[in-house]
């Protein structure tokens, strides 16, 4: 999900939503070329912020944070059960609520807000812009493109984002070699059915929220699979 430039802004701040009406900015009569230039600059700055998909970014951030929290709670529950299999409920609750990695949660939340939410929103708008008709061919093409383009991009970005926060960018190539392909293959088993539902039954405005919600279950599934 590259942040492609477009007149000084990012793609997801500039891409016109299908069906959105853009009203031209009213100009005052007898304005000079200098004032016109200033108006264009101000208008560009306003669209730069106004077109950012804040709702989708916020939803993605909250749900990636939820997914990370569920994963951390499960990890602590499994670790506590192995150490003290006959512990009381009070001890289990105490263990679950302690030692939460807030920096890890912040990493996931900022990834959802800055990258996953806006990037996926632009991706789905682009697909609907290119293939607006709800035909079987278009749906199949969207599912295929989601898996061969969006899936690898998401994995590449989240690995890079995580290693950037950890200060381990030098280890990123080995991380890709070790974990990227297995993660992608596991993802195919989960995301292909989810993507079909996303494109056939979910409206455009709710697709980022739907995919982010599914990512909560994906995080739990992945954690369960890797802990076997």
From TrEMBL:
Domain of life, per lineage: Eukaryota
Pfam families (UniProt xref): Mpv17_PMP22 (PF04117)
Chain segments carrying region Disordered: 19-39
Residue runs in coiled coils: none
Ranges that cross the membrane: 106-124, 144-164, 184-202
Localization per Swiss-Prot or TrEMBL: Membrane
Biased composition (Basic residues): 19-28
Keyword Transmembrane: yes
Gene Ontology annotations for the cellular component aspect, listed alphabetically: cytoplasm; membrane
Record keywords: Membrane, Transmembrane, Transmembrane helix
Membrane topology classification: Multi-pass membrane protein
PANTHER family: EXPRESSED PROTEIN, PEROXISOMAL MEMBRANE PROTEIN 2, PXMP2 MPV17
Family membership: Belongs to the peroxisomal membrane protein PXMP2/4 family.
Protein name: Protein Mpv17
Protein source organism: Canna indica
């Amino acid at each position: 999900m590259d942040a492609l430039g477009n007149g000084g802004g990012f793609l997801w701040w500039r891409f016109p939503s299908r069906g959105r009406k853009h009203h031209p900015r009213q100009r005052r009569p007898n304005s000079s070329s200098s004032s016109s230039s200033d108006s264009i600059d101000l208008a560009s700055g306003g669209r730069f912020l106004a077109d950012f998909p804040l709702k989708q970014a916020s939803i993605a951030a909250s749900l990636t944070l939820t997914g990370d929290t569920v994963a951390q709670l499960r990890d602590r529950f499994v670790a506590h059960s192995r150490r003290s299999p006959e512990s009381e409920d009070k001890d289990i609750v105490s263990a679950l609520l302690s030692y939460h990695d807030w920096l890890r949660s912040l990493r996931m939340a900022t990834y959802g807000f800055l990258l996953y939410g806006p990037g996926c929103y632009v991706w789905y708008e682009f697909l609907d812009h290119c293939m607006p008709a709800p035909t079987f061919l278009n749906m199949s093409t969207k599912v295929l493109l989601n898996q061969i383009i969006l899936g690898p991009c998401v994995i590449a970005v989240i690995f890079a984002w995580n290693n950037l926060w950890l200060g381990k960018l030098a280890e990123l190539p080995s991380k890709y070699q070790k974990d990227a392909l297995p993660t992608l293959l596991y993802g195919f088993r989960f995301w292909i059915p989810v993507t079909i539902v996303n494109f056939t039954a979910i409206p455009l405005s709710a697709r980022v929220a739907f995919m982010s919600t599914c990512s909560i279950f994906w995080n739990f599934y992945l954690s369960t699979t890797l802990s076997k």
